[in-house]
Amino acid sequence: MSDHAKYLTTEVDGQIATLTMIRTDKRNAMSDGLIAALENAYVTLPKEVRVVILTGAGGHFCSGLDLSEHVSRSAEDGVYHSRNWHRVMEMIQFGGKVTISAMEGAVIGGGLELAASTHVRIAEPSVIFQLPEGRRGIFVGGGASVRVGRILGADRMVEMMLTGRKYGAEDGLRLGLTHYSVEAGEALPLARKLAEQIAGNAPMSNYFMVQALSRINDMSRSDGLFTESLCAALVQTTPDAEEGLNAFLEKRAPVFR
């Protein structure tokens, strides 16, 4: 068994891959080993895979930093360590595959950072969203200050971290930490349904939705509007744009590349 196989399994079914975190004795805790396994999984997926479903075995998504592996680092090493996590989270968000998180149980600390780097999030009633770093004497280092901060707003994130507040699935839906709140056992079935739907979209439309919208959100209003025009002009030149228009006029389902 490779080191990666201790942390993650990969199943590919046509255009959809399912990645399952399997370190159940640790509630799928975030670690350098899991980060490496995630990177390896994404870079080795077949080209035809368009959508990834990310989930956790054993009743938990990801319980955050594995404190048993936490080591003392110099400031220099700490920066490099954090930046490596950022690199892998950026790859998940912008690497070209759409990722759906099917979540239950712990979505805590680094687990919430991981979920926030994915594009669609589905939560079951058992989900707990939390950023407990303040109670551990540490600070977020996997991207939460940007990704979770953008979702919640800085003010609410400050309170969440200061108090160690836990949010459930319904609160998460209200706040934007999840896009769907479903009954127990329904996250994976919904993830598969949405994955099939997303995989059936025009590939360049999916690509620009993932690549452009978050970046436009970082821009000034005028820069964002100009970038939107460029994106629209590029996407409408693809064969899929012509197929989508023809399908609409002919009152049939489009058949994209």
Automatic annotation (TrEMBL):
Keyword Lyase (UniProt): yes
Stated name of the protein: Crotonase/enoyl-CoA hydratase family protein
Claim: ATP-binding is one of the keywords in the record: no
Lineage per the UniProt record: Bacteria, Pseudomonadati, Pseudomonadota, Alphaproteobacteria, Rhodobacterales
Top-rank taxon: Bacteria
UniProt-listed Gene3D superfamilies: 2-enoyl-CoA Hydratase, Chain A, domain 1, Lyase 2-enoyl-coa Hydratase, Chain A, domain 2
One Pfam family linked to the record: ECH_1
Family, as annotated: Belongs to the enoyl-CoA hydratase/isomerase family.
Keywords: Lyase
